[in-house]
Amino acid sequence: MKFALVTLALAGLELSNIAVASPVDVRGRIVDEAGVAIAGAIVAVGNVSHDVGADGEFNFALDSPTTISLRVAAPGYYTFLHTLHRSDFVMGRPAVVPDIELVEKKSGRTLMVFAGDAMLSRRYFEPRAGEPTLVRRASVLGDGKQLLMHVQPYIELADVASVNMETQLSNEMLTNPVPKSVTFYSPLELAELLQWAGFDYVALGNNHLYDYRDAGLRSTFDALAATELAYSGAGFNEEQARKPASLVIDGRDHHFLSYVGWPGTFAPTQVARGSKGGAALGDSAFITQDLGALPADAISVLQLHAGLEYAETPALSERTTLRQAIRDGADIAIGHHPHVLQGFEIYRDRLIAYSLGNFLFDQYHYATQLGMLLYVWMDGDELHRAEAVPLHINGYLPTPATGLFRYAVLARLARLTDSSVCMRASGFHAVVDSCDGKARAPTAVTIDDSTSSAPMHLRSLGASPLQALKVESADRPYRLGLDLLNRGDFEYARLYGAHDRTWIVGSNASLRTGDNKLLEIRVPAGGQAVRSGMKVFERVFTLSNPATVSGRIKVDGDVRVRFMLQRRRAMDTLEDALVGGPIRQIGMWQGSSTDWADFSFDHNQPRVATRAVRLLLEVEDVSPEKQGATVSLDDLAWVEWRTPWIGPDDANIDAEFATHLMLHLKPNR
Which of 174, 264, 284, 588 could cross-link 212 (Cys pair, CB 3.0–4.6 Å)? Predict the structure, then answer.
């Protein structure tokens, strides 16, 4: 008999102001990769253990307001972690964790984990007004550990862990940057911090490893030399920059190569040429030469920093280069630079991950907060399995994603992944596997005439984020779309002790974190209108697309709520746009409602000359007495529609990846 151990532990900080709601009965099953139950498991929640039957099933009462870390282990299998939160389950549906698959350990099998872009600069030390300082100069290492403590257990599970270190390191002021628009550097302690978190290798082939020329390189290499971190991708000359890092894992040599995809249009450029320092250039001829120079039995991992920032799909130049790398002998190809997640491809039985998104980074465009860790199991030089672990970069902290964020990460990865790749759930992670020539199966749903006309999150229909949605039957026209917010239920607020940087809050607006988390806006007696909404702009949206803002509202008083869009024009600075960007009203709600009431406003996104947009709310007390009012908002969504209205008689409608479905209003009869 095989025995599995499942350990549940609190992850994140206990919030004293959160009342524990009714316990949720959570159920799940532990299986091997063939779906066969692993019997004899023990589930421990804190100090309480729960026996698991021969069918591999477990259950426990989730009665915590914060997250629970589920640790699954069995002799002869790799250990897994899964993080759960109440918001992972939909009210009225059974709280069932998808089968958790364990991977068997065997001779020659290696587990690698890859993380995205990492730095420790700018807003970590000097936050925007009103936000807390995350890292203090006098305690960089200690504060940095607080940032990575929630993902460290995931990283330490792997035999080897890799991250893209997108920064030079120095504790002295660097004053001679290359002439480009964005330069930065991080403290020397970042190297030690990454090692503490469990990383073994850092990729340096990127567009910030030569920001401060050789002086920055020198201090960076000195800091790395003081650790056990391996690295490649940059050097004081071309030969050094192109030299791979070599690690012996389970008795076999593994070689790690790292490149940046372009030299830059400034002088000196960011790449190493001859005796000049910089990052290794990902020129196709160089990559062919460097892979060809490796021993024939070597296991090689190639990383390329290329493509376009914030793009959903890889640039053709990046895809061409990474495919060529596979043809030239790379066993795994990893991409980064876009700062957002892109999909997967399995090419010639080798894995390509086009963009891992951010890991430890201070960007606050909303799309950059969806991240992942990527586990890859290799049997020698052959791909055995890959698994994506969703992350939420929550207030610049990498944390395991839960609820709407996790759904959004998985849905995005599935939507952007090559059609020859199938994805399935393992717990709340996603297994990445070849479809073996079969078509990806959609989730089929039937919508009856009694369904609401408000936008519905597909979770309420039981739809998997890893499958496209196929509406088999609908009595009215419908359309499918993607939520730009992915946080409108506010359930993520203050998890892991993270400071929320999403919403405009202050003396008259706040996130309430009781049993039902929500955004509360208070208009004081005799006071002027109060404005809240998104704190900064969203850069990832589609010009001219139809969109809908929806949610629920409850009011103590009599109010007028204006829903508005503000544009950041193409040439606006961020600060100028926040203060004076053009604003237009897209909807208005007026009245009083002591019960929750639905609202929904349709609009088109800006057409041209717009770099980014944000949603604003303005609440005004319209009562004659002006005694003040309180507005509560929940389940906010900002949905961009991906399809036109699809009627009952429309034929041959393909399945579509989405987060939301909306039915057309019933016609008057």
Answer: 174
